[in-house]
Design goal:
Layout: E1 7-10, H1 18-27, E2 32-37, H2 44-49, E3 54-58, H3 64-73, E4 79-82, H4 99-125, E5 130-134, H5 147-167, E6 173-177, H6 197-210, E7 214-215, H7 219-230, H8 232-241
Parallel strand pairs: 1-2, 1-4, 2-3, 4-5, 5-6, 6-7
Helix pairs in contact: 1-6, 3-4, 4-5, 7-8
The structure holds NADP nicotinamide-adenine-dinucleotide phosphate.
Residues 11-12, 14-18, 37-39, 42, 59-62, 83-87, 107, 111, 134, 136, 179, 181-182, 184-187 line the site of NADP nicotinamide-adenine-dinucleotide phosphate.
Length: 247
Amino acid sequence: MQVENAVALVTGANGGIGQYYIDSLRSLGAARIYAGARQLSSLDNLVAIDPDRIIPVALDITDQTTVEAVAAQCSDVNLLINNAGIGLLKGFISAPDLSAARAEMEVNYFGTLAMCRAFAPVLKANGGGAIVNMLSILGRVNFPMNASYSASKGAGYILTQGVRAELAAQNTLVVGVMPATVDTKGSQDFPPPKVAPETVAQAALQAVIDGIEDVYPGEQAQAIAAQLLSDPKGVEKAMAAMLPQSA
Ligand SMILES: NC(=O)c1ccc[n+]([C@@H]2O[C@H](COP(=O)([O-])OP(=O)(O)OC[C@H]3O[C@@H](n4cnc5c(N)ncnc54)[C@H](OP(=O)(O)O)[C@@H]3O)[C@@H](O)[C@H]2O)c1
Protein backbone atom coordinates (compact mmCIF):
# COMPACT_ATOMS: atom_id res chain seq x y z
CA MET A 1 0.00 0.00 0.00
CA GLN A 2 1.04 3.63 -0.36
CA VAL A 3 2.06 5.55 2.73
CA GLU A 4 1.34 8.80 0.90
CA ASN A 5 -2.08 9.99 2.11
CA ALA A 6 -2.31 7.10 4.60
CA VAL A 7 -3.79 7.62 8.06
CA ALA A 8 -1.41 6.06 10.57
CA LEU A 9 -1.39 5.36 14.29
CA VAL A 10 1.96 4.84 16.05
CA THR A 11 2.04 3.40 19.58
CA GLY A 12 4.88 4.45 21.87
CA ALA A 13 5.27 7.51 19.64
CA ASN A 14 7.30 9.39 22.27
CA GLY A 15 9.96 6.67 22.38
CA GLY A 16 13.33 6.34 20.65
CA ILE A 17 12.12 4.61 17.47
CA GLY A 18 8.55 5.93 17.67
CA GLN A 19 9.64 9.49 16.93
CA TYR A 20 11.40 8.32 13.78
CA TYR A 21 8.26 6.52 12.64
CA ILE A 22 6.46 9.86 12.93
CA ASP A 23 9.29 11.61 10.99
CA SER A 24 9.27 9.00 8.23
CA LEU A 25 5.49 9.04 7.94
CA ARG A 26 5.61 12.82 7.51
CA SER A 27 8.37 12.56 4.88
CA LEU A 28 6.39 9.97 2.93
CA GLY A 29 3.29 12.19 2.90
CA ALA A 30 0.95 10.50 5.37
CA ALA A 31 -2.26 12.52 5.61
CA ARG A 32 -2.79 12.14 9.36
CA ILE A 33 -0.68 10.58 12.11
CA TYR A 34 -2.16 9.60 15.46
CA ALA A 35 0.69 9.59 17.97
CA GLY A 36 -0.04 7.30 20.92
CA ALA A 37 1.63 7.71 24.31
CA ARG A 38 0.75 6.95 27.90
CA GLN A 39 1.50 10.55 28.96
CA LEU A 40 0.09 13.07 26.49
CA SER A 41 2.50 15.76 27.71
CA SER A 42 5.42 13.61 26.48
CA LEU A 43 4.20 14.31 22.92
CA ASP A 44 4.16 18.12 23.17
CA ASN A 45 7.44 18.70 21.29
CA LEU A 46 6.58 16.14 18.62
CA VAL A 47 3.11 17.56 17.95
CA ALA A 48 4.52 21.11 17.81
CA ILE A 49 6.55 20.14 14.71
CA ASP A 50 3.43 19.48 12.62
CA PRO A 51 0.23 20.19 14.59
CA ASP A 52 -1.99 19.92 11.51
CA ARG A 53 -1.01 16.31 10.88
CA ILE A 54 0.09 14.87 14.25
CA ILE A 55 -2.77 14.14 16.64
CA PRO A 56 -1.83 13.11 20.18
CA VAL A 57 -3.74 10.18 21.65
CA ALA A 58 -3.55 8.91 25.25
CA LEU A 59 -2.93 5.19 24.87
CA ASP A 60 -1.75 2.48 27.21
CA ILE A 61 -1.88 -0.67 25.10
CA THR A 62 -2.37 -2.86 28.19
CA ASP A 63 -5.63 -1.07 29.04
CA GLN A 64 -8.34 -2.84 27.04
CA THR A 65 -10.96 -0.12 27.59
CA THR A 66 -8.61 2.57 26.30
CA VAL A 67 -7.52 0.44 23.35
CA GLU A 68 -11.16 0.00 22.28
CA ALA A 69 -11.92 3.70 22.79
CA VAL A 70 -8.91 4.70 20.67
CA ALA A 71 -9.98 2.30 17.89
CA ALA A 72 -13.42 3.97 17.91
CA GLN A 73 -11.87 7.45 17.94
CA CYS A 74 -9.34 6.72 15.18
CA SER A 75 -11.76 5.03 12.79
CA ASP A 76 -9.98 6.38 9.69
CA VAL A 77 -6.69 4.52 10.36
CA ASN A 78 -5.39 2.30 7.55
CA LEU A 79 -1.82 1.87 8.86
CA LEU A 80 -1.32 0.63 12.44
CA ILE A 81 2.24 0.70 13.79
CA ASN A 82 2.57 -1.37 16.96
CA ASN A 83 5.85 0.10 18.16
CA ALA A 84 5.34 0.26 21.96
CA GLY A 85 7.40 -2.25 23.88
CA ILE A 86 9.48 -2.83 27.00
CA GLY A 87 12.67 -4.79 27.69
CA LEU A 88 13.72 -5.29 31.30
CA LEU A 89 17.06 -7.10 30.84
CA LYS A 90 16.27 -10.09 33.02
CA GLY A 91 17.29 -13.74 32.80
CA PHE A 92 14.78 -16.55 33.16
CA ILE A 93 16.52 -18.07 36.18
CA SER A 94 18.52 -15.15 37.56
CA ALA A 95 15.49 -12.81 37.76
CA PRO A 96 14.31 -12.44 41.36
CA ASP A 97 10.72 -13.33 40.43
CA LEU A 98 8.33 -13.48 37.45
CA SER A 99 7.32 -9.81 37.51
CA ALA A 100 9.56 -8.70 34.60
CA ALA A 101 8.59 -11.69 32.47
CA ARG A 102 4.90 -11.00 33.08
CA ALA A 103 5.25 -7.25 32.39
CA GLU A 104 7.10 -7.84 29.10
CA MET A 105 4.49 -10.35 27.99
CA GLU A 106 1.70 -7.96 29.02
CA VAL A 107 3.03 -5.11 26.84
CA ASN A 108 4.91 -6.83 24.01
CA TYR A 109 2.50 -9.71 23.43
CA PHE A 110 -0.93 -9.03 24.99
CA GLY A 111 -0.82 -5.28 24.30
CA THR A 112 0.13 -5.81 20.66
CA LEU A 113 -2.55 -8.51 20.35
CA ALA A 114 -5.18 -6.18 21.84
CA MET A 115 -4.25 -3.47 19.31
CA CYS A 116 -4.43 -5.93 16.38
CA ARG A 117 -7.84 -7.16 17.51
CA ALA A 118 -9.28 -3.67 18.10
CA PHE A 119 -8.03 -2.28 14.79
CA ALA A 120 -8.75 -5.29 12.55
CA PRO A 121 -12.32 -4.09 11.81
CA VAL A 122 -11.10 -0.50 11.37
CA LEU A 123 -8.53 -1.62 8.79
CA LYS A 124 -11.13 -3.76 7.04
CA ALA A 125 -13.53 -0.82 6.80
CA ASN A 126 -10.70 1.26 5.30
CA GLY A 127 -9.79 -1.18 2.54
CA GLY A 128 -7.44 -3.59 4.34
CA GLY A 129 -4.43 -1.39 5.05
CA ALA A 130 -1.43 -2.65 6.99
CA ILE A 131 -0.16 -3.50 10.47
CA VAL A 132 3.52 -3.10 11.37
CA ASN A 133 4.62 -5.01 14.48
CA MET A 134 7.94 -3.92 16.03
CA LEU A 135 9.49 -7.22 16.99
CA SER A 136 13.22 -7.99 17.41
CA ILE A 137 15.77 -10.44 16.11
CA LEU A 138 15.67 -11.62 19.75
CA GLY A 139 12.22 -12.99 18.96
CA ARG A 140 13.95 -15.47 16.62
CA VAL A 141 16.64 -16.64 19.06
CA ASN A 142 16.98 -16.28 22.81
CA PHE A 143 19.43 -13.72 24.16
CA PRO A 144 19.98 -14.90 27.76
CA MET A 145 20.88 -11.40 29.03
CA ASN A 146 17.40 -10.24 28.01
CA ALA A 147 15.77 -13.65 28.18
CA SER A 148 12.15 -12.97 29.09
CA TYR A 149 12.10 -10.04 26.63
CA SER A 150 13.23 -12.50 23.93
CA ALA A 151 10.36 -14.79 24.87
CA SER A 152 7.83 -11.95 24.62
CA LYS A 153 9.16 -10.96 21.19
CA GLY A 154 9.09 -14.62 20.14
CA ALA A 155 5.42 -14.64 21.13
CA GLY A 156 5.05 -11.45 19.08
CA TYR A 157 6.64 -13.19 16.07
CA ILE A 158 4.14 -16.05 16.23
CA LEU A 159 1.34 -13.53 16.85
CA THR A 160 2.39 -11.68 13.71
CA GLN A 161 2.21 -14.87 11.61
CA GLY A 162 -1.23 -15.74 12.98
CA VAL A 163 -2.72 -12.26 12.57
CA ARG A 164 -1.32 -12.21 9.02
CA ALA A 165 -3.11 -15.46 8.23
CA GLU A 166 -6.41 -14.35 9.79
CA LEU A 167 -6.41 -10.94 8.11
CA ALA A 168 -5.31 -12.12 4.65
CA ALA A 169 -8.96 -12.42 3.58
CA GLN A 170 -9.56 -8.73 4.31
CA ASN A 171 -6.38 -7.78 2.42
CA THR A 172 -4.43 -6.47 5.43
CA LEU A 173 -0.65 -6.62 5.03
CA VAL A 174 1.02 -7.63 8.33
CA VAL A 175 4.71 -6.71 8.59
CA GLY A 176 7.09 -7.97 11.28
CA VAL A 177 10.18 -5.81 11.90
CA MET A 178 13.16 -7.58 13.47
CA PRO A 179 16.16 -5.33 14.09
CA ALA A 180 19.14 -6.23 16.24
CA THR A 181 20.42 -3.44 18.51
CA VAL A 182 18.94 -0.03 17.63
CA ASP A 183 20.79 3.14 18.61
CA THR A 184 18.35 4.54 21.19
CA LYS A 185 18.62 5.57 24.84
CA GLY A 186 17.46 2.13 25.96
CA SER A 187 20.44 0.46 24.28
CA GLN A 188 23.12 2.98 25.33
CA ASP A 189 24.99 0.38 27.40
CA PHE A 190 24.97 -2.18 24.59
CA PRO A 191 28.11 -2.64 22.46
CA PRO A 192 28.12 -1.75 18.74
CA PRO A 193 27.08 -2.41 16.01
CA LYS A 194 23.80 -0.50 16.28
CA VAL A 195 21.39 0.37 13.53
CA ALA A 196 20.05 3.95 13.43
CA PRO A 197 16.39 4.28 14.50
CA GLU A 198 15.58 6.22 11.33
CA THR A 199 16.90 3.28 9.26
CA VAL A 200 14.52 0.95 11.13
CA ALA A 201 11.48 3.19 10.60
CA GLN A 202 12.33 3.80 6.93
CA ALA A 203 12.88 0.08 6.24
CA ALA A 204 9.56 -0.81 7.90
CA LEU A 205 7.61 1.77 5.90
CA GLN A 206 9.37 0.78 2.67
CA ALA A 207 8.24 -2.81 3.39
CA VAL A 208 4.65 -1.55 3.70
CA ILE A 209 5.00 0.15 0.31
CA ASP A 210 6.62 -2.92 -1.28
CA GLY A 211 4.34 -5.50 0.37
CA ILE A 212 7.20 -7.27 2.21
CA GLU A 213 6.19 -9.22 5.33
CA ASP A 214 9.48 -9.82 7.21
CA VAL A 215 11.99 -7.00 7.65
CA TYR A 216 15.49 -7.28 9.16
CA PRO A 217 16.81 -3.69 9.25
CA GLY A 218 20.58 -3.28 9.45
CA GLU A 219 23.54 -5.52 8.67
CA GLN A 220 23.61 -7.23 12.08
CA ALA A 221 19.97 -8.37 11.90
CA GLN A 222 20.41 -9.49 8.29
CA ALA A 223 23.51 -11.52 9.18
CA ILE A 224 21.76 -13.21 12.13
CA ALA A 225 18.67 -13.92 10.02
CA ALA A 226 20.87 -15.53 7.35
CA GLN A 227 22.73 -17.61 9.94
CA LEU A 228 19.42 -18.72 11.49
CA LEU A 229 18.72 -20.40 8.14
CA SER A 230 22.18 -21.95 7.68
CA ASP A 231 23.26 -22.65 11.28
CA PRO A 232 20.52 -22.02 13.90
CA LYS A 233 22.42 -23.90 16.61
CA GLY A 234 25.46 -21.70 15.98
CA VAL A 235 23.34 -18.57 16.58
CA GLU A 236 21.93 -20.01 19.81
CA LYS A 237 25.44 -20.85 21.04
CA ALA A 238 26.80 -17.42 20.11
CA MET A 239 23.99 -15.70 22.08
CA ALA A 240 24.57 -18.00 25.06
CA ALA A 241 28.31 -17.23 24.99
CA MET A 242 27.57 -13.54 25.66
CA LEU A 243 26.20 -14.36 29.11
CA PRO A 244 28.86 -13.69 31.76
CA GLN A 245 29.48 -16.94 33.66
CA SER A 246 29.82 -16.94 37.45
CA ALA A 247 31.34 -20.07 38.95
N1 LIG B 1 16.14 -0.22 20.95
C1 LIG B 1 16.46 -1.42 20.50
O1 LIG B 1 17.64 -1.83 20.48
C2 LIG B 1 15.37 -2.30 19.91
C3 LIG B 1 15.75 -3.43 19.19
C4 LIG B 1 14.77 -4.27 18.65
C5 LIG B 1 13.42 -3.96 18.84
N2 LIG B 1 13.07 -2.86 19.57
C6 LIG B 1 11.64 -2.61 19.77
O2 LIG B 1 11.29 -1.38 19.17
C7 LIG B 1 10.21 -0.78 19.87
C8 LIG B 1 10.59 0.64 20.28
O3 LIG B 1 11.77 0.57 21.06
P1 LIG B 1 12.60 1.86 21.53
O4 LIG B 1 14.02 1.49 21.49
O5 LIG B 1 12.14 3.07 20.80
O6 LIG B 1 12.17 1.90 23.06
P2 LIG B 1 11.80 3.15 24.00
O7 LIG B 1 12.56 4.35 23.62
O8 LIG B 1 11.88 2.61 25.38
O9 LIG B 1 10.27 3.38 23.61
C9 LIG B 1 9.30 2.46 23.96
C10 LIG B 1 7.96 3.14 23.84
O10 LIG B 1 6.93 2.21 24.24
C11 LIG B 1 6.06 2.90 25.12
N3 LIG B 1 5.34 2.00 26.01
C12 LIG B 1 5.84 1.16 26.96
N4 LIG B 1 4.83 0.52 27.57
C13 LIG B 1 3.67 0.96 27.00
C14 LIG B 1 2.30 0.70 27.20
N5 LIG B 1 1.87 -0.18 28.14
N6 LIG B 1 1.38 1.33 26.41
C15 LIG B 1 1.79 2.20 25.48
N7 LIG B 1 3.06 2.53 25.25
C16 LIG B 1 4.00 1.91 26.01
C17 LIG B 1 6.97 3.85 25.89
O11 LIG B 1 6.16 4.86 26.47
P3 LIG B 1 6.49 5.52 27.91
O12 LIG B 1 7.36 6.68 27.59
O13 LIG B 1 5.14 5.88 28.43
O14 LIG B 1 7.18 4.47 28.75
C18 LIG B 1 7.84 4.36 24.76
O15 LIG B 1 7.19 5.37 24.04
C19 LIG B 1 9.93 -1.70 21.08
O16 LIG B 1 8.87 -2.57 20.76
C20 LIG B 1 11.23 -2.46 21.23
O17 LIG B 1 11.07 -3.71 21.86
C21 LIG B 1 14.02 -2.02 20.10
